[in-house]
Structure formats: structure tokens, C-alpha cells
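INFO batch 0412 | record 1 of 1 | parsing
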Amino acid sequence: MRIDVVTLFPDFFTSPLSSGLLGKALAKQIAAVNLVNPRDYATDKHRRVDDEPYGGGVGMLMKPEPIFAAVESLPILPKRDVILMTPQGETLNQGLLKEWATNYDQLVIICGHYEGVDERVLNLVTREVSLGDFILTCGEIPALTLINGVVRLLPGTVGKEESLKAESFEAILLDYPQYTRPPEFRGWRVPDVLLSGNHGEIARWRREQQIERTRDRRPDLYDTWLEQSGKEAAE
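INFO prediction complete | emitting C-alpha cells
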């Protein structure tokens, strides 16, 4: 997969893209991340990428010309999504990450800054995406989150791919509690069932814990799971 990031701050990505599983995946060419700075495509002598908004208002907006030129400089792969990171977009979730990892060859991610981008930039965009109902200083932070979430789903990134199937949100439900050695720590014991060696009982316990955790912590997901379970039973 090719991931192009349109960013005023390419240095922001240097350390994260070279660290951990993400760094290993890029080194193995499971994915390639290309950073393009719209300032390199500004045409005035000051290389300006922002200006005051028409109609007045606080702050500056990113100008459309450098962003268009940066995106149009990129190759176009057959299955491509051009994504603007914005609080006004659809909320990023595991389903979206799986869709990109499974069905797309190229992601172009535009990182906003200042008070956002000129509205005409949306003519370039095929999808607007947000991390949630809050504001950050720049689009680079959610862009890095998106990159990490997609690349870890690509074949070869995670050593044991079956572990991806048991994670939170993969089957709507949250993950079950997990423990490692020692069997007792400061008076807190590992549940006996996990020490029993009875794999059938362990599987049942884990499923029960998933359901209880989701019901208690994320009632919205629990309701979705109940609805989905009812549909599957009817079918």
C-alpha cells in the first residue's frame, strides 16, 4: 500500500514512522509512506500557504493552490481514497481501517492546520475523517493514528495475524481481561479458570467477560451487538 501525506510538518512523522511495528513494516515494504509539503508548491516569493479568511474571523486558513498542486503531483493508483483529517468528518473506527487495509492501494491524507483549509479543497477529497468530537492543533496527529491503524492490519505487519481477530471491536465486543505471570500480585489473583488448562471453559469465560465489559463500558456497542446477534439468529 502507498500512503501519501500532505503536511506542512513532515518532520512530525520521522520518529513514529521509524519505530516499533510500524517502522518494521515500512522497512519490509509492506507499505510505503511518502511525505509531501504543500509549501514546496507555493508560487509566491514568500511561499505562503495560508491567508486571512474572506468575511473576517479569527486565525488563518490554508490556501487551496498549494494543496491542489501537492495532491496533483502524486501518482494515482487504481483504488485511491483522498482523506481530509477534520473534526467535521466521520469518526474513525475499526471498520474504516479494515476497509482501507483490504480494499485500497493508495491513501492520500491531507493534514489541516491553523483554522482549517479553504472549502474548495473538498473538491479534491473523497472522504473526511475525524478522531472524535474534540479539537487538536493539527491534522498530523490523527493522520499518524490512521496510518498506524491501517498498516498494522496489512498482512505481514503483526507476527500472529490470528491475534488481530480477537481484538476489541473486531466482533463489535470489547476485548476480554488478560493476565500474565505472576499468578498473584499484591493480593490480586489471576482468575482460576485461566490456570485450569480447560480451553473450553476458558473460551466461555472470555466470551462472558467480553459481553459484560461491553455492556458496562460501552452500552452503545452492546446495543449494536444485540441487534447484530438478533439478525444473525433470524437468518
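INFO post-check: Strands lie at 2-6, 32-36, 50-51, 61-62, 80-91, 106-111, 127-130, 184-185, 188-189.
INFO record closed
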